[in-house]
Design brief:
The complex is a heterodimer of chains A (114) and B (110). With 114 residues, chain A is mainly beta. In chain A, 0% of the residues lie in helices and 53% in strands. Chain A has strands at residues 5-7, 10-13, 19-24, 31-38, 42-50, 53-57, 64-68, 74-78, 87-94, 104-105, 109-113. In chain A, strands 2, 4, 5, 6, 9, 10 and 11 form a seven-stranded mixed sheet that branches. In chain A, strands 1-3-8-7 form a four-stranded antiparallel sheet, with no helix packed on it. Chain B has a five-stranded mixed sheet, with no helix packed on it. Chain B has a four-stranded antiparallel sheet with strand order 2-7-6-5, with no helix packed on it. Chain B is globular, with a radius of gyration of 13 Å. Classes of the chains: A mainly beta (114), B mainly beta (110).
Chain lengths: 114, 110
């Protein structure tokens, strides 16, 4: 069974541009979480999608947005890129079965803003 | 989410057991103790979790104190591949985001 897949692996953008990151969850998983791991700041929760709806967002500006498609894949968009947006962006998925409280992570997309 | 406290770093020799401690003095009765680890250049991966009793799986063992205010992740024979940052996280079973602390960076020496 395929794990969580993220694309692209690396992304290089310049300040002011927009970035789009993609995530495909494990088959059967309906929840997708996005996390940011910036150097020295640790893993921080960004956005949570479940059954196509945004359920919660972390302490990030509205420039960070996304969506979840009917097949449960997800997209993270970052507008008006700033240098400090350079980070590893991780996607995780989770099964809807409540007793299986485990999140499975992809390998991430490394975004570099120049 | 209740807070956890872990040492910043630990070091182990290869093929020796490693005990990674976690303090969670404000844990509630329904909180599960989860451990994830993040290998270099990879996303975090689930290791183990438990509620009250000690747990074993193919990756590790989890020893939980009787008062549940602390727990220890045990790697029985550390290998170089176990070098990672280990995160202890409390979960109440709801479908919510994970809250990561700084974790413990484990170095394994050959």
């Amino acid at each position: 069974e395929a794990g969580v897949t993220q694309s692209p692996t690396h992304l290089i953008k310049t300040r002011g541009q927009q970035a789009t990151l993609r995530c495909s969850p494990i088959s059967g998983h309906t929840s997708v979480y996005w996390y940011q791991q910036a150097l020295g700041l640790g893993l921080q929760f960004l956005l949570w999608y479940d059954e196509g709806e945004e359920r919660n967002r972390g302490n990030f500006p509205p420039r960070f947005s996304g969506r979840q498609f009917p097949n449960y894949s997800s997209e993270l968009n970052v507008n008006a890129l700033e240098l400090e947006d350079s980070a590893l962006y991780l996607c995780a998925s989770r099964t809807p079965q409540t007793f299986l409280d485990i999140q499975y992570f992809g390998a991430g997309t490394r975004l570099s803003v120049l | 989410d209740a807070k956890t406290t872990q040492p910043n770093s630990m070091e182990s020799n290869e093929e020796e057991p490693v005990h990674l401690p976690c303090n969670h003095s404000t844990i509630s009765g329904t909180d599960y103790i989860h451990w994830y680890r993040q290998l270099p250049s990879q996303g975090p991966e689930y290791v183990i979790h438990g509620l009250t009793s000690n747990v074993n799986n193919r990756m590790a063992s989890l020893a939980i104190a009787e008062d549940r205010k602390s727990s220890t992740l045990i790697l029985h024979r550390a290998t170089l591949r176990d070098a990672a940052v280990y995160y202890c996280i409390l979960r109440d079973g709801r479908n919510t985001p994970l809250v990561f602390g700084k974790g413990t960076r484990l170095s394994v020496i050959a």
